[in-house]
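4.2 Preliminary Data

To establish feasibility before requesting continued support, the project team ran the inverse folding procedure on a target of 184 residues. The structure was first converted into the token representation described in Section 3, and no sequence information of any kind was made available to the design step. The complete token record follows.
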């Protein structure tokens, strides 16, 4: 863990008016620095690291859907969490991706300072890149603490973003199949 990062947290806590030497805060700068490193660990990964060769030949050409992948990210505007679910569909073209790799791709990009719109696009483009699929669709549903805890303070608000590539973009019937399979 970076002593520099820990020092910055000590400074922030002090600037907020707290005493960093008080019992409950003694290890807080260290814990906060460690948590931030974990929450932004996606910067230390590449798509090749995450996929790790788990692309397999297959004669499957029907839609594959992985839904309800939980994600946790930090908004790049306020460094507050946004959390939710990600649904991914793709139309294989002689290659399928190992199931766990979808969650790993989502985590890699989510564990960076983000906006949900960019996160959705990054995931779709990554799945397209590694599978060379005929089509890829990603839908993300998120709840943003920057809108719930501060600002307008709307507790029940959520955001839905989508990116459709290839056949999922070009064919309404294919897009409708994806939406039907995830119950939307």
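Position-by-position output of the design step:
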């Amino acid at each position: 863990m970076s002593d520099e990062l820990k020092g910055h947290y000590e400074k922030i806590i002090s600037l907020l008016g707290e005493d960093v030497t008080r019992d409950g805060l003694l290890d807080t700068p260290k814990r906060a620095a460690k948590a931030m490193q974990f929450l932004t660990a996606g910067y230390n990964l590449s798509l090749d690291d995450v996929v790790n060769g788990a692309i397999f030949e297959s004669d499957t050409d029907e839609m594959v859907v992985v839904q309800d992948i939980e994600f946790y990210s930090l908004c790049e505007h306020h460094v507050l969490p946004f959390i939710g679910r990600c649904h991914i569909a793709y139309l294989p073209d002689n290659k399928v991706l190992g199931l766990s790799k979808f969650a790993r791709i989502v985590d890699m990009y989510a564990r960076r300072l983000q906006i949900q719109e960019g996160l959705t696009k990054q995931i779709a483009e990554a799945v397209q890149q590694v599978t060379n699929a005929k089509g890829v669709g990603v839908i993300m549903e998120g709840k943003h603490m920057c809108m719930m805890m501060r600002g307008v303070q709307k507790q029940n608000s959520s955001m839905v973003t989508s990116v459709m590539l290839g056949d999922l973009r070009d064919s309404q019937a294919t897009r409708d199949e994806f939406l039907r399979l995830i119950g939307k």
